[in-house]
C-alpha cells in the first residue's frame, strides 16, 4: 500500500501489486514470533513468567521492519510511535482485566473490558502525540520564517 497526503491532512491509500507480498511477510514475521513465544511460554513452568512472552511485540516488530524496508525510516518511526500508544494501551488493558478478575468478574468479561480500555487509551495517546507533533512543526516553521511571536 502506498500512502499519499493531499495537503489537507487526509491520507489516501493506494493499493499496489506488492500488497500481498507485504501481507505475507507481515504474517510470516508476526506469526513466527508468536509461535516462538508460545513455545517458550509452554515450556516455562511459571505461568507468570510465561506471561512475559504473551506480551512480546511480534506484530510491532513485523510492522516496523516491513514499513522500514518498503517506505523508509520516517514511516517506520510513525509505525513505532503508534506502537508506543498501543503498548501503553496494552498495559492499561491488562491492568483493567486483572482488576476486573480480582473483583470477581469472569475472564471473558475482563477480556472484553480490557480490550475496550486498550482501544480508548491508545486512541487518546495517538491524539496527544499528533497534537504535540503539530505544535512542534508550527514552532519549527515560525522560527525558520521569522514569523514567531514574542
In words, what does this structure look like?
The protein has 150 residues and is mostly helical. It has 2 domains: 1-71, no CATH class; 88-150. It is 77% helix and 5% strand. The protein has 5 helices and 2 strands; from the N terminus they run ββααααα. The protein has helices at 19-43, 47-54, 58-71, 73-102, 107-145, and strands spanning 2-5, 11-14. It has a two-stranded antiparallel sheet. The N and C termini lie far apart (44 Å).
Low-confidence stretches: none
Number of strands: 2
* Portion in helices: over 70%
Helix run count: 5
Biggest sheet architecture: 2 strands, antiparallel
Termini separation comes to: 44 Å
Major beta sheet, strand line-up = 1-2
Indicate the mean pLDDT: 79
Overall 3D shape: flat
Structural domain count: 2
Q: What class, by secondary structure content? A: mainly alpha
Share of β-strand residues: 5-15%
Write a concise keyword list for the protein shown above.
150 residues; mainly alpha; two-stranded antiparallel sheet; 5 helices; flat
Amino acid at each position: 500500500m502506498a500512502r499519499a497526503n493531499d495537503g489537507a491532512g487526509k491520507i489516501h491509500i493506494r493499493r499496489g501489486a506488492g500488497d500481498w507480498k507485504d501481507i505475507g511477510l507481515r504474517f510470516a514475521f508476526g506469526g513466527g514470533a508468536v509461535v516462538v513465544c508460545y513455545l517458550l511460554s509452554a515450556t516455562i513452568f511459571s505461568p507468570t513468567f510465561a506471561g512475559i512472552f504473551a506480551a512480546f511485540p511480534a506484530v510491532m516488530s513485523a510492522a516496523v521492519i516491513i514499513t522500514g524496508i518498503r517506505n523508509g525510516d520516517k514511516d517506520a518511526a510513525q509505525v513505532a510511535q503508534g506502537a508506543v500508544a498501543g503498548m501503553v494501551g496494552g498495559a492499561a488493558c491488562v491492568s483493567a482485566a486483572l482488576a476486573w478478575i480480582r473483583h470477581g468478574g469472569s475472564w471473558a468479561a475482563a477480556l472484553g473490558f480490557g480490550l475496550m480500555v486498550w482501544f480508548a487509551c491508545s486512541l487518546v495517546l495517538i491524539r496527544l502525540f499528533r497534537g504535540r507533533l503539530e505544535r512542534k512543526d508550527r514552532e519549527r516553521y515560525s522560527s525558520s520564517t521569522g514569523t514567531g511571536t514574542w
